[in-house]
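Bump. Still looking for LTD domain-containing protein structure tokens.
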Amino acid sequence: MPLKSYGVLIAKAVGVRREGAAQTPHFQIHLIDEHGTHHRAAVNVKSQQAPSDLLYVVAEDFRHPVTDRLAGLPGGWNTLPPGPGGGRLDFVRGNLFDPAALRSLPPDAAGPDNDLADLLDLHVRRAVADDSALLYVFGERWGPEAAVRDKIFGFLPGNGVHDVHMNQGNSGTFEGDDGVWQDGGLLIRFPGPDRWVAVFLAFQSQSRHTDDATGHALGGAGGGAGGGWSGAGDRPVRIAAALADPVGPAPEAESVTLINASPDAVDLTGWRIVAGPGDGSPVPAGPLAAGAALRVALTDGARLGNHGGEITLLDAGGLKVDGVSYTARDASREGWTITF
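Sorry for the wait, here they are.
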């Protein structure tokens, strides 16, 4: 079943602790929210399933509509409403990052700047040193444990967030944690000028193709030792541009432009563009020649909001081919095409 208590903790980081020798090591973060409540974020740096090294991606200048959706939340723990369109994260449907950017790192290795704990230490310590920086930690909450001191930092009551990683497409005993729109993540907001840094983590045993209702790995698309995200950068057809705010009154003639970056023609029969809550807009059937572009006029099955959103391209089998996101600022100029 999905995580029982998913949400986001918004608080100030005040300290860190590494667990390099543990069987299931974590990078531990001590946080205090605006109410003076202490919390601990336990971030996995090693998988219990092979391959043990986690996949990671860091966006030093993270721009995504989710940051606007989080802007009005108070400090402390926030339970987030289910589904898309709110502040929840989903690695498959939310188009948070380019999957081709994912890399693996060992949990802890001798020497500087060569393991996942080093990477987390670098970014979190920057936030510790900046009094105005806030961490947004997504995952599952535990506590408050009124009679139990925190085992790492010693505060009382025990309070914290774990599962700060992808929480779908699991295999084996971890399938029970699967769900959609409940992925973990770490965002750091540095005000003045407003800048967001994002860190996303996934296990190599997880799948990048999951069921829209359960979050379970789709048949034939699972993870395993080969890596569920292997080949994620091989996207022959990609979303190149979108016209979210055409000139003129509503209903507007919105469109998405695709490009075939591969050396071979690709048959687009049965493909769809999904944007918004509907089933999507069909892509014209037939082959798209190598190097060719195709402008797809969207029907009522897909809408591009002027306040930012996500656009996803699905093949005839319903598997994700490509996905992008755009912000309200990107869509703020009427008649201008957004390029990706």
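Helices lie at 65-70, 116-129.

Edit: fixed formatting.
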